[in-house]
Design goal:
10 helices; alpha/beta; binds manganese (II) ion; 299 residues
């Protein structure tokens, strides 16, 4: 206090008058939290339509529209210890941002909490995955993201599956919704080390059989990454690199519902608000509730 303690300061009054945007149900302190949400407003390597750096606050705003109670999961979200750290300060270089995410998420994981990242572009996921060696990984994505480097950068968003393979090893990664692959990626000797499940295969088999296969092959700890362009553009138009013929949001939810108990970290990336009609950010907010709600209902 700047007045020798004669008068209390006005932090509570000011706190009631100004907002610092966070996920509405994130009402716990970091100390008490079981789920730690954070944004990373970075889209520096995005090749086609930039703007995913604007997604974290857009998702938080959309989340305000959601009910805090979910009768299907039987949870009241404000009662669940969730905190929102706000947004990471980002550098200009993707590799530096990935390193910063790795360092910050290490604290979260060491403290026994579940990190939930609001991207930003897909390259950022590497910083989280480095904290989960030995885990399996489920990726929702239209793209294989399997280039060793792109535009001279190993930390381009077109390389995230390849970087994850280097960390997790063969047979651990299930990438669902694939429908855009370069010839070099497809013919790479590494290709068979990741199980790419195309959007067509999901349509032909049904998501239940896809879930059964992953259940047989994945271990007990799974990292879950949602590139919003994996979902059909009719449902998720607000992305940087849209691809027709995608999977359905209900299929992503079925995967989350089934595997929630095993999921140790979660991210939503590539949402690009300037191309959105509002549905993509709404869906992203809802997927966060689906993850936390179904994980809590299994706890
Ligand atoms: Mn991607
Ligand atoms: Mn993609």
């Amino acid at each position: 206090m700047g007045n020798d303690g004669r008068q209390k300061d006005h932090v509570s009054e000011l706190g009631a008058m100004f907002s610092h945007r966070k996920i509405a149900d994130a009402q716990a302190s970091y100390e008490d939290a079981r789920y730690v949400i954070f944004g990373v407003p970075f889209d520096g390597t995005s090749s086609f339509r930039r703007g995913s750096r604007l997604a974290p606050d857009t998702i938080r705003l959309a989340y305000d529209n959601l009910e805090s109670f979910d009768f299907q999961y039987g949870v009241n979200f404000p009662d669940i210890p969730i905190c929102d750290l706000g947004d990471l300060y980002v550098e200009e270089d993707a590799e530096e941002v990935v390193d910063d995410i790795e360092r910050s998420v290490k604290h979260v994981v060491d403290d026994g909490k579940v990190p939930i990242m609001l991207g930003g572009e897909h390259s950022l996921t590497t910083g989280l995955v480095r904290n989960f060696p030995g885990c399996s990984m489920i990726i929702i994505d239209a793209h294989s993201d399997f280039r060793d480097e792109y535009m001279g950068n190993k930390f381009n968003h077109a390389c995230i599956t390849r970087r994850s393979l280097e960390i997790l090893g063969p047979g651990k990664i299930f990438s669902i919704g694939t429908r855009s692959v370069s010839r070099e990626e497809y013919e790479s000797p590494e290709w068979s080390k990741v199980r790419f499940i195309s959007a067509n295969e999901v349509r032909e088999k049904g998501i239940t059989r896809v879930i059964e296969e992953i259940e047989r092959k994945a271990g007990d700890r799974i990292y879950f990454s949602i590139d919003m362009d994996g979902i059909d553009p009719s449902e998720a138009p607000g992305v940087g690199t849209p691809e027709p013929y995608g999977i359905q949001s209900s299929e992503v939810r079925a995967l989350i519902n089934h595997f929630a108990g095993k999921i140790v970290g979660f991210d939503i990336v590539e949402l690009t608000p300037v191309y959105d009609n509002g549905n993509t950010s709404m869906l992203a907010a809802r997927l966060i509730q689906d993850f936390i709600g179904s994980k809590e209902s299994k706890a």
